[in-house]
# Entry
Amino acid sequence: MAHSSDPDRHSNNQSPQDLDFDQLSQDSRLNKLLKSVIAEVKLYAEDQIKHIKQLAQIGLALSVEKNISRLLELIVDEARDLSNADGGTLYILDSRHKHLRGEIVQTDSMNIRMGGTSGVEITLPHVPLYSDNKPNYANVSSYVALTDEAVNIPDVYEAEGFDFTGPRKFDESTGYRSKSMLVIPLKNHENVIIGVIQLINAQNPETGEVIEFSREYADLIAALASQAAVALTNTQLIEDLKNLFYSFIQSIATAIDEKSPYTGGHINRVVYLTMTIAEKINEVNQGPFKDICFSDNEMEELRLAAWMHDVGKITTPEHVVDKSSKLETIFDRTELIETRFGSIEKSIENEYLHNKIKLLEKGSSITTDELKDLDKQFKEDISQIHEEYEFIKTCNNPGEFMNDENIQRIKEIADKTYVLLQKKQHYLTDNEAKNLSIRKGTLDENERKIIENHATMTLNILNQLPFPNRLAKVPEYASGHHEKLDGSGYPRGLMEKDLPLQTRILAIADVFEALTAKDRPYKKPMSLSQAVKIMGFMKNDNHIDPDIYDLFIDNSLHYQYAEKEMNPEQID
# Structure
């Protein structure tokens, strides 16, 4: 009962109902605050997840892009997108680490896109890293490259310590207002700075107002810069390896051409013809090639095959590659035969003088007719020697077709003998007679097999190289340039069904170059019409692909090549 009359039971004149209401009101405010905090945390988390996903997608895009120009452009595009920047410039450090050169320049509000795939040349001057042998800290991009420190500037017009003459001049001439700036270094996997990305004028995504680059954006761009630097380094390494490989291949091609002064430039011309035909096939939208379009990888594969089609000639003896006459081996034996025939002539003369002395020793018993007959026979013998030597010189000419009659005469000359140092010798050795009897060209059967072996060696050599999958057909295409549709070619005697289109293109390029070459010592420069005529015969004989040949002629690719590579008098 005492408790019911306690004056302190309800202080401040508050009823229990009042206490309950206040408590509920306070709890409600706390709940609202908590919900607000949770909502903000959730929004922040979702935003972070979005950024993480975006960075992951960017990283994937950067890793698969192999074109340097597109990759550089992609880096600036994504950096600007992440930070809502109006403009961006990507600088790359030169190989000597002396200056930064602008590779990409973009400003959306000014509709400026330079470098990369834009086709617009960058007019920015290089940024030197050193001035008078001292570090150039005045320029913000060179400062970042030298110090490896990111720079975040709220307003370049109020910033101290850097020279912003360039941006201010740009603003004066264009009416632009450069304000906030974020400059981040690009470092590769070895932690070496390879460039700098410079962003300008971050924008509020809702109002478009130019604002400072937030710390959050700076961290995101730094993460992007790291990904970009690694991707760029990888792509540059791939590009450098590709350039090294191509340079190596071209140096080998040059060395092969230089093995013979008469085939210089052959490989270059075959590459040109091959790719001209392939590009035309990609262009046409009717006929047998309307559904064929070589991809970039296939074009590269074909180009490499053209560059390497004669790599097997590394193993071919120079005197065979360079054989300009039938008698040539290590040296041209025409002079040796000339010396021998001079010796035979002297032998005949000595015999004549010996016989004449014997006649004169007879004294008064000698007759005038005997002396005349002796002189006549001597002159006939000398004349015959001269005539036989001239005939041999004619037969040694690779342009001279040897018929059965001429071959028989060579055999008869070879069977004749003379005496040297009391030993009987033949006018021609077996090998000389064999080479002089070559019906067409300069190569005998064994030498032709040596020459043809270069195609087999091309296949063997290229099969030893670890070509990536996209270039796996290079050995097949390169080694098949002497194959024919009817199976009579070499080295494998492949039939039409087994010959890829790329091999057929290369075969036609090789044949046309060889026919029209103006620097072969064993034949006169062939006219364009004659070359086309011969290739027409080859088409009819099922040696070369008729569709490629028709494309080549119908699109005047032969004239295009002739004007570039042939003598004016050859073009008829």
Observations:
- Residues 16-64 form the longest helix (49 residues).
- Residues 66-238 form a domain with the Beta-Lactamase fold (CATH 3.30.450.40).
- Residues 1-12 have pLDDT under 50 and may be disordered.
- DSSP finds 18 helices and twelve strands in the chain.
